[in-house]
Amino acid sequence: MKPVSRHVRTNVLWAWFWMAIGTLYFVIPLIATFDFSLRARKGVLTFLAYQRVFNDAAFWRTFLFSLQMAFFTIVVSVLLVVPTAYWIRLRLPRLRPIVEFISMLPFVVPAIVLVFGLIRVFSGPPFRLTNTFTGTNVLLIAGYVVLALPYTFRAVDTGLAAIDVRTLTEAAQSLGAGWGIILFRVVFPNLRVAILSGAFLTLATVIGEYTLASFIVGIKAFGPYMSLVGQNKTYESSSLAIISFLLTWAFMGLIQIFNRGRAEGQLAGAR
Amino acid sequence: MSSSTATPRVQGTRDAPQARPATQRQRRAWRDWLGVTPFLLFAFLFIVLPSTYLLVGAFRGPGGQFTLKNFADLLTPSIINAYWVTIRISAVTALGGGLLGFLMAYGVTVGGLPRWVRMALLTFSGVAANFAGVPLAFAFIATLGRTGMVTVFLKTVLGLDLYDKGFSLYSFWGLSLTYLYFQFPLMVLIITPALDGLKREWREAAENLGASTFQYWRRVALPILLPSILGAMILLFGNAFGAYATALSLTGGFINLVTIVIGSQIKGDILYNPGLGYALAVGMVIVMALAMTIYFALRRRSERWLQS
User: Fold this and answer.
1) Which residues of B touch A99 (CB under 8 A)?
2) pTM higher than the cut 0.90
């Protein structure tokens, strides 16, 4: 027995060691950024940089804009993915490989390539989406839905696997429910964990998203706004980094609560 | 309307699929397809169409004729260098982040760290893996920039001037350190379920047969985990390979990455040839497609043992 317990002890020691390294890597940049954000006035620690950020009308305007974009992205994603995943489970299992393949495609197409293609296709005839504000917003939301597709589809599909779709559908039908009622009163409520965690993941990634936003809508969105602040205001940019870190933390914390501590549902793409 | 006339219609659309007249089955098949039409239409418009546009454009010359010249033009030194730097930075951060992430995930799964550490690690990994782009660049400028906290600390306390020693946050290694911030948490998130799948019985069986810890890892655990580890590292590779915002806001575009070159090409025709820009994008997709093919092959292998 003795050698085993010694093993375990050195094991635990190493485990703590690597945990400490990782924790330092995680914490030091945050401390440095927070410290920096408090130094807007020479010699004293002050929340002046935060004050300036919160007093900036552009901060609220761009933040609310990105919040709106995130909201529409979530609505469109859910309306697009849930019925499709449900229908495939129920009626068209042979289409599953195709839909799965399509939903994995955004993994292969980096955001910068996606936005390249979107702009070239939709700025010309017959679409001309980039000529109007509504058009660019639609294009941005569509791009975000594409970027979120692998995660939303997987989350919803795993959620559907956990419930007995066929029985639920037949039960609802025998009680006289039509497809609309089945979708909105049976399927959606049963998927609320998957949908909510997908929604907050989308929120966390879309709020500060830069790549698509900077090319499609420019300075109207929060990501490009932060980037602009970073070019000429040092302390404000640090406070923005802290603010967006806290936001990410809040959204991820909510996902954790919904998922009760499982690791799934927290992965998003590169930015 | 009486119920006797309504019943057959309801049966026709809603019943179990067996035994029905051929015409009804055909109508059902048509209706079935209607259910996935919105998704397929969306995918066609916003995934297939843009990709095809770039692909076709990559094979077109200035006059619209078919050509392979755009791909031949990729072989200029500056573009080869862009691919090479991007691939190197992705590989370095995938290896480094993969290793650190694996060791940390190991600690909270097999390593015997308390449960609250696991919870904390998974929460923070969820946050850090999604904390990329512009704010991450700001954070690292405040940490390792010229007047960053760590830079100043090393200089004043240890007398080590990083920037005199040739380090720069805005170069290859600086960017790699920054990418690591979202890479190793991503590894933790991907690999933890795989480590959870290691069965205690396997270890006990190995020990009962007289295997040492080393032998257990060499002969049992590692062969089972290897596909998962490699697969996860490939995901990290792809994650860094497509990153644009972090690199742009950190270096201001002064680092030669493929994503940065494509970004400038979107803003204006910096390559003086739109076809070349499309070929550049297609090249990225090819690298990503290769990576993902290997990833899925590896995942099939790992699923044989680990049902997570």
Assistant:
1) 36, 39
2) no
